[in-house]
Design a protein that fits this description.
Keywords: ATP-binding, Nucleotide-binding, Transport. The chain is of the alpha+beta class. Helix content is about 25%, strand content about 35%. The chain has two domains: about 5-225, 3-Layer(aba) Sandwich (Rossmann fold); about 235-340, Beta Barrel (OB fold (Dihydrolipoamide Acetyltransferase, E2P)), CATH 2.40.50. The protein has helices spanning about 40-50, 90-100, 105-120, 135-145, 165-180, 195-200, 215-220, 225-230; strands spanning about 5-10, 15-25, 30-35, 55-60, 65, 75-80, 155, 185-190, 200-205, 210-215, 235-245, 245-250, 255, 265-270, 275-280, 285-290, 295-300, 310-315, 325-330, 335-340, 350. Strand 11 (about 235-245) and strand 12 (about 245-250) form a beta hairpin. Helix 2 packs parallel to helix 4 (about 135-145) and helix 3 crosses helix 4 (about 135-145). Adenosine-5'-diphosphate binds near residues 17, 35, 38 and 43.
């Protein structure tokens, strides 16, 4: 089953939640809808589920226009951010709820619910009530419930954001495993870029109700199409540069440009992992701070002009590259993205997280 958003527009009074969203999710694909709070992710998902009707544009499931089909006839399973289980029903009855509404026989309901609970790693927990389950377990039940009627499409609205970090990672891996196993076309909404990059076949970045870029995770990360995507996905240094011909001079280096330069004076966008830091007794730069992250350490380095850069180095170099050390700074030789220099940035580099 494919899911297609075609020119989807939805307003709430003066607020434009969706502003002509175009996106096609392929059969069996998991697409992450990624964007900041308020960019229209939930509205887009609710339009697919049938809880929301667009002002204009269409939603197609498997090529059929379902824009006017009621939610209960759309074959979409949905999981919400907050635990949406019925508190007075145990896990089994929560999972079986949709089957009960459809008047399936009790025995069938129960065996199917237990089967699904097993699928999401909750075998034997069918008798537990929501308050007897952890947050992660409750979301597993919600996932089982969404899958109970064998939907054509799975819709996940920030399903992990209320969970703590460890559970979030393990549950997202499990959702992905399950999704691949079932081959179910899935739209996974998140504002967490790491989550989007790690779980999806493709990431669709939304801004102000429009699609900003869609592509494989590595493509979104390495080749952001717009400054917004570059900023939103991962961390970027902005270093002032000067374009000469097809190259840009940055930190005294001449680097090839990816794409076309918007002018002579530009901001060069460089990831922290592309900044090289080497000890140099009379080096022009100074390590100001270091935060150890295990496999890597992130350094904050001050340049001669007082601007600062972030640099990621291998974790085992963290002791050697300590705050107070004078260093040389360079950019790993590879094409870089350049954008028009921000009017406010003067000649100062801006570090953004
Ligand atoms: P996201 O899920 O990306 O955070 P939403 O789709 O929930 O964004 O919301 C997009 C925009 O539409 C926001 O500005 C939000 O305040 C607005 N909005 C969403 N639902 C409603 C509603 N029922 N009434 C009024 N405004 C809404
Ligand atoms: Mg939302």
């Amino acid at each position: 089953m494919t899911v297609e958003f075609r020119g989807l527009r939805r307003t709430y009074g003066p607020t434009v939640a969706l502003d002509g969203l175009d996106l096609t999710v392929a059969q069996g694909e998991l697409i992450a809808l990624l964007g900041p709070s308020g960019c229209g992710k939930t509205t887009a998902l609710r339009c697919v589920a049938g809880f929301e009707r667009p002002d204009s544009g269409m939603v197609l499931i498997d090529g059929n226009d379902v824009t006017r089909v009621p939610a209960n006839r759309r074959d979409a399973g949905m999981v919400f951010q907050s635990y949406s289980l019925f508190p007075n029903l145990n896990a089994r009855d929560n999972v079986a709820f949709g089957m009960r509404v459809r008047r399936r026989p009790v025995a069938e309901r129960h065996s199917r619910a237990d089967e699904l609970l097993e699928l999401v790693g909750l075998a034997g927990r069918g008798d537990r009530y929501p308050h007897q389950l952890s947050g992660g377990q409750q979301q597993r039940v919600a996932l089982a419930r969404a899958l109970a009627l064998a939907p054509k499409v799975l819709l996940l609205d920030e399903p992990l954001s209320a969970l703590d970090a460890k559970v979030r990672v393990s549950l997202r891996e499990e959702i992905r495993r399950l999704q691949l196993e079932l081959g179910i076309t899935t739209v996974f909404v998140t504002h967490d870029q790491e989550e989007a990059l790690s779980v999806a076949d493709r990431v669709a970045v939304l801004k102000d109700g429009r699609l900003e870029q869609v592509g494989a995770p590595a493509e979104i990360y390495d080749r952001p199409a717009t400054p917004f995507v570059a900023e939103f996905v991962g961390t970027m240094n902005h270093i002032p540069g000067r374009v000469t011909g097809d190259r840009v001079e940055v930190l005294g280096q001449l680097l090839p440009i990816d794409g076309t330069a918007p002018g002579e004076l530009v901001d060069v966008l460089v990831r922290p992992e592309a900044v090289r830091v080497t000890p140099a007794e009379a080096g022009p730069a100074l390590i100001m701070a270091s935060s150890f992250r295990g496999s890597t350490a992130r350094l904050r380095v001050q340049l001669a002009d007082d601007s600062q850069l972030l640099a990621d180095v291998p974790g085992h170099d963290a002791v050697r590259l300590a705050p107070g050390l004078r260093v040389d700074v360079s950019v790993v030789e590879r094409p870089v993205l350049v954008t028009a220099r921000a009017a406010t940035s003067d000649d100062e580099s801006v570090v953004s997280a």
